[in-house]
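pls design
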């Protein structure tokens, strides 16, 4: 009975909490912004974004194919690098460029290591090399797909591949101190005369996780041309090595929506989240089924647990507000996906598949002697609020990529997760250690919730003792009314009233529901907070011990992965469990310590079993605890450390409560009836239960009267008929 009531209370509490938060997150009123509102917003924000001038309509031009259209071979094709990949470098990244397609070969973040305590820097994006036979020996090996490579161009209906063409390095400004590099490519006709010049300039800025691609196409003839440009954008980011919850990589599209925001004051992502698996299965990225009608693509991002690569429109420092940001769709109206290798050609290569995004312009009219700009901006770095709050990313609303959620954003209590992270950062400023900060956070949360926990546990212990004391009488009632369940329920309620047992105390677990949002928010925050990545616990004391013995001890060296107590050297991993994927390369001890402490805590907090059925349920709950070490075996050590510390604090909580209950029992005040506050929550619950009991009792009495009335009437009628028959 108590287990059923508890489960029902938990379910109802969560439903109510989620419903309230969902209503609170919805705007009070949603309407189309009028022309006056849009004009006022634009005046406040500054001049609106200028859409690129694409010249005349290509359909109005009468063009003919160019005979012998070809690519002029490059004389100085080289791979170069911009910036540095060193923790103390001025640049936040090193940008390796490839001559093939004038592409990005690799993006290396200088401030983030690949693995904990390693000098090698983190590669946030790299080239893709699918097992496709190379059609041209002089081209890139195995038709490597480079991020942001020029893919192909169509001129007057004839298409040339650009991805496997070597581009000319037009300047020598490259190397660790360089901030830009320019590649060019010239298209010629059959007589060798230049037709089109393509220029791509990469510009890297110091102290910023981003770069710009300034690219253009110039018509070198005296005739108009119709061109169509297509290039690669970003693709999959690396899978996080501690993928405890499985592959969390996503693609996100940010968009303007004039129906809700005619002034374009914000960029929305409400319906723009797509799991990588959806794209692998052939689903479109933009537009898709959930894309609102009339939405304009502002930017597209690919992300993993901690990092993101975002392709966005070209913005300048002069742009100070969102209405000044042009839509990416204005320059590149076509956003597509490639899945490599092609599953139709390689049905057995599912594990090696990858997603690559493509950008296309559609047809563009290019008058004689003129050029068209196709500029882009790229962010490549951590998903961190401090970065996205800075210009120009603040006006692009990249902060929507910072999420601490496990599926449903509302159900994960985002506002609470951010509040807890801010408090954790504040503690870290004082203690200078994230492990200690987590311990202090546990203490603060437990102190905050102690009054609620104390009341809930006291009520449950009191209820357990009361129920245990009346078991002999309840057993007599069960035997007496074993064939009359309604009468049994009525008599049991009468017994409760006689013994001063308040059934409302069965809901003593309800106040503990307030802890559920905190637990959920903490779970998500500790998993996704990049602040814990590669951070040791307890001032690196375990690593110091390892160095004393001439080795390295990885125990709690990185709070974003499992604790790695002892290396086992096993490659065994269970991949068929949903969301978990435990790996056994290391022996992790925190989950086992957590199970032991949870068992002790449950032993201390669980009230005495009132009957055999309750005792059986308690045994099952103890067995369930043994599952936790397996489920949380590969969980981040920051999370398991919090649960372990919180459970240990729960033992202290329980000791305080048990001592309080023992003192009340010795004083004889444990079972005293406390006057309920009129109109209070418990008063209303008790009155509701009493009214329900009275209603059930009256209904049962009415049913009993109705059952006996027809029998008495039928008997009298029979006698009357019999008497009438005799008189006749």
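designed seq:
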């Amino acid at each position: 009975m108590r287990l059923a009531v508890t489960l029902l209370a938990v379910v109802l509490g969560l439903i109510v909490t989620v419903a309230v938060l969902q209503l609170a997150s919805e705007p009070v009123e949603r309407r189309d912004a009028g022309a006056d509102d849009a004009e006022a917003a634009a005046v406040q924000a500054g001049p609106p974004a200028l859409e690129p001038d694409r010249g005349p309509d290509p359909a109005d031009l009468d063009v003919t194919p160019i005979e012998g259209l070809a690519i002029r071979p490059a004389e100085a094709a080289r791979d170069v690098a911009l910036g540095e990949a060193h923790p103390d470098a001025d640049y936040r990244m090193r940008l390796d460029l490839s001559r093939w397609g004038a592409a990005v070969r690799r993006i290396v973040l200088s401030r983030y290591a690949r693995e904990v305590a390693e000098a090698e820097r983190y590669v946030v994006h790299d080239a893709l090399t699918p097992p496709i036979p190379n059609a041209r020996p002089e081209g890139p090996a195995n038709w490597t797909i480079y991020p942001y490579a020029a893919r192909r161009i169509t001129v007057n209906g004839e298409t040339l591949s650009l991805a496997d063409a070597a581009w000319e390095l037009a300047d020598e400004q490259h190397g660790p101190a360089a901030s830009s590099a320019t590649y060019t490519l010239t298209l010629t006709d059959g007589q060798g005369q230049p037709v089109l010049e393509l220029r791509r300039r990469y510009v890297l800025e110091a102290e910023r996780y981003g770069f710009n691609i300034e690219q253009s196409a110039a018509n070198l003839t005296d005739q108009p041309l119709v061109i169509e440009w297509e290039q690669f954008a970003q693709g999959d980011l690396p899978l996080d090595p501690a993928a405890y919850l499985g592959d969390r990589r996503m693609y996100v599209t940010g968009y303007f929506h004039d129906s809700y925001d005619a002034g374009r004051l914000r960029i929305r992502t409400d319906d723009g989240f797509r799991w990588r698996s959806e794209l692998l299965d052939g689903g479109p990225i933009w537009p898709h089924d959930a894309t609102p009608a009339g939405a304009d693509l502002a930017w597209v991002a690919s992300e993993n647990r901690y990092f993101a690569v975002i392709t966005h429109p070209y913005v300048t420092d002069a742009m100070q507000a969102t209405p000044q940001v042009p839509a990416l769709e204005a320059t590149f109206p076509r956003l597509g996906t490639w899945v490599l290798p092609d599953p139709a050609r390689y049905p057995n290569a599912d594990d090696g598949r990858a997603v690559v995004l493509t950008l296309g312009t559609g047809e563009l009219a290019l008058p004689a002697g003129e050029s068209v700009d196709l500029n882009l901006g790229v962010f490549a770095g951590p998903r961190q609020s401090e970065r996205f709050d800075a210009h120009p990313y603040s006006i692009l609303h990249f902060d929507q990529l910072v999420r601490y959620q496990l599926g449903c954003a509302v159900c994960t209590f985002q506002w609470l997760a951010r509040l807890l992270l801010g408090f954790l950062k504040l503690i870290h400023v004082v203690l200078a250690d994230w492990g200690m900060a987590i311990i202090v956070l546990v203490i603060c949360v437990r102190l905050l919730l102690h009054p609620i926990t104390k009341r809930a546990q006291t009520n449950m212990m009191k209820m357990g003792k009361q129920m245990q004391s009346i078991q002999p009488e309840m057993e007599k009632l069960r035997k007496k009314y074993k064939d009359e369940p309604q009468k049994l329920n009525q008599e049991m309620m009468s017994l409760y009233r006689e013994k001063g047992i308040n059934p409302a105390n069965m809901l003593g677990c309800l106040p503990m529901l307030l802890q559920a949002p905190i637990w959920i928010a903490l779970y998500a925050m500790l998993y996704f907070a990049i602040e814990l990545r590669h951070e040791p616990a307890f001032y690196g004391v375990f690593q110091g011990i390892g160095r004393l013995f001439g080795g390295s001890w990885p125990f709690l060296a990185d709070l974003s992965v499992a604790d790695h107590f002892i290396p086992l050297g096993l490659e065994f991993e269970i991949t068929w469990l949903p969301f978990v994927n435990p790996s056994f390369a290391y022996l992790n001890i925190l989950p086992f310590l957590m199970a032991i402490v949870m068992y002790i805590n449950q032993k201390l907090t669980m009230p005495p079993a009132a009957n055999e059925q309750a005792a059986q349920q308690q045994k099952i709950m103890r067995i369930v605890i043994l599952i936790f070490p397996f489920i949380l075996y590969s969980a981040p050590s920051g999370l398991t450390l919090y649960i372990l510390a919180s459970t240990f604090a729960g033992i202290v909580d329980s000791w305080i409560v048990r001592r309080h209950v023992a003192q009340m029992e010795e004083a004889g005040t444990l079972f005293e009836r406390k006057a309920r506050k009129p109109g209070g929550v418990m008063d209303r619950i008790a009155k509701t239960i009493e009214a329900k009991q009275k209603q059930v009792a009256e209904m049962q009495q009415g049913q009993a009267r109705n059952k006996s009335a027809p029998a008495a009437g039928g008997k009298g009628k029979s006698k009357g008929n019999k008497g009438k028959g005799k008189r006749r």
